[in-house]
């Protein structure tokens, strides 16, 4: 858990840093609004992540919190959630808007409900100090302008057990590998020993061939379907290559199937408790040489831990999957407190906050400010700022009945299973996926239109 600092401690630390930077108390006081209206999903979570900082910057400002919990109810469709967010903003008129998912951010930006931050960013010069991948994600709007700023991001690392690599005389992984290169490296462990007790080269908990195929495809910027056009996009050369890469490695023994023993609840649902989760973690137990996990994972393993950046796409060899910037701060379009809100956002991506964050656990993400890599003692952090997110254009999830997803992914899993059992060729599999997937998508869109 993050080692929380009290408000008094943070005020002292930040005040000292502000004075060292040449900012006087008078200048800071002049910027303080009497009241700031803040909209976020959960009040406790907001104050845990931002409250101390906001009170440090504007100690005399009254915060009026507006709950957006109803607008973020994941039991309803995305279309309904977006509608509720729009109504909340129009009715409550918040100054600072905190968004916890990128889809809602893009919808509100495209609807003109958020302020373009370009003028503020140019004035402060902050853009040059922010992770370029974060800025790219912020600009993925209809007009390619930033309407919010993610103060933190999350990214993965390829972790490896250096002791196993040394023991088997296998080259260590390195930055810039594609998925095919990673899996070829993993196969060398399979080739080195046929024993059932021998370590495997790569393992991902609760991940089967479908999940791995989606992970590889995500790195390549591929989608199985485009809801905004109503088209399934599986029968392509790019997807053929993805499935061939994954399925060929399942067939040659690179992976070893393992499913932890689950428990059954009173309603018949199978679930996995902490004991099952631990038993499934072959990497931490020293039985797998490589795995992918978010930055900061695997701090207590009993072997020499190494890490490099995760696999990159084959076309540019520079972009990786699992790179997200979902915690976005935005200014409501038309807010009279826009300058003050930007002052807080600017502060949240400053060297000051990056320095303080370097002394804490990164429960909420890694600071978007590039200088964090210099402040932290974790050498692996520097590599995070060399990663760029995979390019996957935003899709429109409105106008689709949610029953589509379960049926679609069940079909994909079954077709993969039949192919691994040599009941059909990869070519036939892709054709069947395309045809069945399109039928399911058409039916889901028709069902939604009847509502």
UniProtKB/TrEMBL annotation:
Gene3D superfamilies per UniProt: Periplasmic binding protein-like II
Coiled-coil positions: 416-450
Keyword Membrane attributed: yes
Top-level taxon: Bacteria
Pfam families: SBP_bac_1
UniProt keyword list: Cell membrane, Coiled coil, Lipoprotein, Membrane, Palmitate, Signal
Xref: InterPro entries: Bact_solute-bd_prot1, SBP
PANTHER family named in the record: ARABINOSE-BINDING PROTEIN-RELATED (PTHR43649), POLYGALACTURONAN_RHAMNOGALACTURONAN-BINDING PROTEIN YTCQ (PTHR43649:SF33)
The name this protein goes by in its record: Carbohydrate ABC transporter substrate-binding protein
